[in-house]
Amino acid sequence: MIKGNEITLRPTEITDLEDLFLFQLDDDANYLAAFTSEDPTDKQAYFEKFTKLLNDPTVNQQTILADENTVGSIAKFERNGEAEITYWIDKTYWGKGIATTALRDFLSIETIRPIFGRVAFDNYGSQKVLEKCGFVRIGFDKGFANARRVEIEEFIYSLT
Fold it and tell me: Taking the CA of residue 79 as centre, how many other CA atoms within 13 Å lie in the half-sphere pointing to its CB?
């Protein structure tokens, strides 16, 4: 376990998926995340996807705890041979520095560099989290955002 203030990271367990599934049902969170699953209400698909990821040795999936309460998740995965970061915080805990603390702590155990992060062009909170942790915006891409049902721009960040 890694501690940063009252924030703790630990490897995600199958029993965490119920809480994590509920977090990603929030409409505001989905809108900001933008690049979500096609149907975030499909619990079976969610559990199948994340059970598979928990067993993938290239994925480092951690659960974020605040005062021992599950408040989100953070993970490193690989896309086209490059390491990427993703995180999700329960909306109730937004604006409390949890994502920044969790990402800083996570980067101390997940030391592969470069590591990339992608964020919707208008997700200013997530952009700030990446920048506070040393990520630099290096480009952009466009892709279909399931949560918005339209193609949008996403910024690409890198930590070297």
Answer: 10
